[in-house]
Amino acid sequence: MVNQVTGTFQIKEQRLQKYHTEICKLLPEFDECQLDQIPQAQNIEADGLAKSTAATKNFTTEDQSKVHLLNSLIDQIKVRNVNLTWDWRNRIATYLQDGILPNDKKEAKKLWMQAARYSIVHNDLYKRTYGGPLAKCLDPNQTRRVLEEVHEGHCGAHSGNQVLVRCLIRAGYYRPAMKKKAANFVKNCERCQKYAPMIHQAGAYAQIHEQEVIAFIWKNITCRFCLPKEINCDNGPEFAGKKVAEFFENGTSKEYCQRLTTPQATEVLWACRTTPKVSTGDAVIPVEVGEPSLRYFRESGSQNDDSRRQELDEIEERRDMAYVRMVAHKQQAKRYYNKRAKIGPLKVGAYMLKDKTQASKDPREGKLGTNWDDPYKITTAASKGSFTLETMEGKRLPNNWNITHLRYFNF
């Protein structure tokens, strides 16, 4: 560095430029300064002292404190004051401020597309909603406080989860999985549980006889809703007895027993098209497409637009739930096809391959990378289906691994 300060050599490295700048700041503080370069042949003592310090093991006691420098003294660290705790908002805020993306290309593209609707205003993260104001992104504590105020506060009316989510977005607040959070909050509300409407269901009986049918109709139907004109049922033997017939003859009600029939093929196909699927949770063709129901018939244009905007604000939650259902459906199909497979128990000393997660894969390899890691040896069985592994060099892995992440390795 002496030749760079005196001007003999040029400064090409950026780090040396920082040292040169710091030295130039300190030189005017001295009345007289002389810089001499000591030749390497005359600097053996200092060089040996530095090498001996690095090679000697550092023995420290518990009372001695250690100071670890993460950065050099010449490095300038920029610190921004952002009112965010460490939660789901930090990844988006870090990208908006510094442009830092994950190493994985898929995660980076997902974050890039997700952050397009977010912005930072006065050190707080906001999301642009569809047809509404900028919604402030909340942490878990703030979400609980806002839900309590909107649901059961001074202006709260103990509304349902759909209305509660709409009120939160309209008031300018947002959080991922807000629909699920609102549903759980409404479900656990004490007043909503105490003042919930009564749901009349059929009684549970081990064996249903005519006398139980007569008592149920009299107690749960006649005494509550007056004498009915007609009663439709699908269980014939219990409603076609002599006692039940005498009970209806004494009143003014007429009974119609509708027996179960075998569905036709066309009805089965239509039921398959209109039944929500396990993997997606949606039906292929809803019933309202062919025959509009009352909820579609009474829907106005403005209300439909507001509902669609609310669904757009909840699109991230629906995507996450669809991904969870897709993974669960794959696991269910895997268990179904593997239930007849004869799987032998893993023995201590066997060599196994460990699957690579998305985080452990090298992003430079891409699709050409391996899906299984190097062979490991089973040392002990920690619990049922969990094992302790070690490398080929005898180094033990820090965590136990489940059998679902392992497969045999044959030499």
Automatic annotation (TrEMBL):
<dbReference type="InterPro" id="IPR002156">
    <property type="entry name" value="RNaseH_domain"/>
</dbReference>
<protein>
    <recommendedName>
        <fullName>Integrase zinc-binding domain-containing protein</fullName>
    </recommendedName>
</protein>
<dbReference type="GO" id="GO:0003676">
    <property type="term" value="F:nucleic acid binding"/>
</dbReference>
<dbReference type="InterPro" id="IPR041588">
    <property type="entry name" value="Integrase_H2C2"/>
</dbReference>
<dbReference type="GO" id="GO:0004523">
    <property type="term" value="F:RNA-DNA hybrid ribonuclease activity"/>
</dbReference>
<dbReference type="InterPro" id="IPR036397">
    <property type="entry name" value="RNaseH_sf"/>
</dbReference>
<feature type="domain" description="RNase H type-1">
    <location>
        <begin position="2"/>
        <end position="52"/>
    </location>
</feature>
<feature type="domain" description="Integrase zinc-binding">
    <location>
        <begin position="140"/>
        <end position="196"/>
    </location>
</feature>
<dbReference type="InterPro" id="IPR012337">
    <property type="entry name" value="RNaseH-like_sf"/>
</dbReference>
<dbReference type="Pfam" id="PF17921">
    <property type="entry name" value="Integrase_H2C2"/>
</dbReference>
<dbReference type="Pfam" id="PF13456">
    <property type="entry name" value="RVT_3"/>
</dbReference>
